[in-house]
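Anyone up for a design puzzle?
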């Protein structure tokens, strides 16, 4: 799953939070940062931070996380540049200043979907087990012994199917729609679940 890890220090404590591509928030699709608990998902106490200051979101077309300024009179400083309007790319190591408060992006995880593809084993073909020279092409058709019926060996066809999530605890597979709900069998969060390709049975 695509995620960004943010770290900051507030009220005498070091805090860390993961921001996911799709997660419940007060403004769906974004995670807002500021002092106002009614409008912000990450609430801080530093007086130099605006009530509603910035929001972080995942851009599905660009496949990256971005930060957007929501307070023009108090623009954030992102990697040394003031962000008055619009949005700017966040990457691992990015430093954000909201007023005098520092936030660091300590990790960015962008998964090229699917994370893991499980393909069914190739059909057994006894012709492929005959001795071959080291330079034999991958799909070389071995010599057929007299009296044996010859079958052409074709390259494997990519499986057709749908993607699902495999629970990291009970290993049962459930539809990807359960990502926010959790495993229907054991209740474990599917945030760390492996994406698997489920092919229809013949």
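Challenge accepted. My sequence:
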């Amino acid at each position: 799953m695509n995620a960004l890890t943010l770290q900051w220090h507030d009220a005498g404590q070091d805090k860390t939070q993961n921001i996911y591509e799709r997660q419940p928030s007060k403004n769906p699709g974004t995670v807002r940062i500021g002092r106002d608990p009614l409008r912000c998902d990450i609430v801080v106490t530093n007086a130099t931070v605006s009530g509603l200051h910035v929001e972080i979101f995942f851009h599905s077309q660009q496949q990256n996380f971005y930060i957007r300024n929501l307070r023009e009179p108090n623009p954030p400083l992102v990697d040394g540049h003031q962000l008055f309007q619009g949005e700017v790319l966040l990457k691992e190591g990015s430093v954000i200043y909201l007023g005098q408060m520092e936030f660091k992006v300590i990790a960015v995880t962008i998964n090229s979907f699917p994370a893991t593809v499980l393909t069914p084993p190739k059909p057994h073909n006894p012709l492929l087990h005959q001795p071959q020279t080291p330079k034999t092409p991958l799909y070389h058709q071995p010599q057929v012994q007299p009296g044996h019926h010859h079958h052409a060996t074709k390259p494997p066809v990519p499986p057709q199917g749908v993607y699902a999530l495999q629970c990291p605890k009970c290993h049962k597979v459930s539809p990807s729609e359960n990502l926010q709900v959790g495993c229907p069998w054991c209740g474990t969060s599917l945030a760390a679940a492996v994406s698997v390709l489920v092919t229809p049975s013949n």
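A detail worth pointing out: The radius of gyration is 26 Å.
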